[in-house]
């Protein structure tokens, strides 16, 4: 079971794949991105923006895990993808152990890095560990918190703990 599907990012990817992308001077040339690079993916479905950022930085919200000609060639369990022309980058959230991200449970907004102690930000989750080479079926049962995101095809899980910030 996929624990995380970022609908807003999927919408960005589908819009981009359909060729209805917006261009901006801030948009990175995705043909120059490689596996391991990080970026800030944002904007709107009709004007998506991808800007290369340092991994783990306040600006970064995704890490490139594969580069492909189109979304269909990405691993099935990636968190998102971004396509422009004949280039697609397959993306996972840029988790940092001990760091926090705000992940919208309704998957309307892109995830973003936050201060774990900033009570004004909803849906804060701290990454506690990344479990790799898991035997199928991949689950978060081995996470101390029992919470996390599974990546069944690539056989890993990101364990998280909720640190508060649920809207009142």
Determine the N-to-C terminus distance.
29 Å
User: What oligomeric assembly is this protein in?
Assistant: single chain
Strand arrangement, major sheet: 2-1-3-5-4
Approximate strand percentage: 35-45%
**What Rg, in angstroms, do the CA atoms define?**
15 Å
Order of helices and strands: HEEEEEEEEEE
Low-confidence stretches: 1-25
Largest sheet: 5 strands, antiparallel
Averaged pLDDT:
83
Counting structural domains, the number is 2
Number of strands: 10
Helix content bin: under 10%
Overall spatial form: globular
Derived structural class? mainly beta
Our count of helices gives 1
What does this 3D model show about the protein?
The structure is a single chain. The protein has 168 residues and is mainly beta. It folds into two domains: 7-93, no CATH class; 100-162, no CATH class. Helices cover 7% and strands 35% of the residues. The chain has one helix spanning 7-17, and strands at residues 38-44, 47-53, 62-68, 80-84, 87-93, 100-102, 112-114, 124-131, 147-151, 156-162. The longest helix is centred in the first third of the chain and has 11 residues, at 7-17. The radius of gyration is 15 Å and the shape is globular. The model is unreliable at 1-25 (pLDDT under 50).
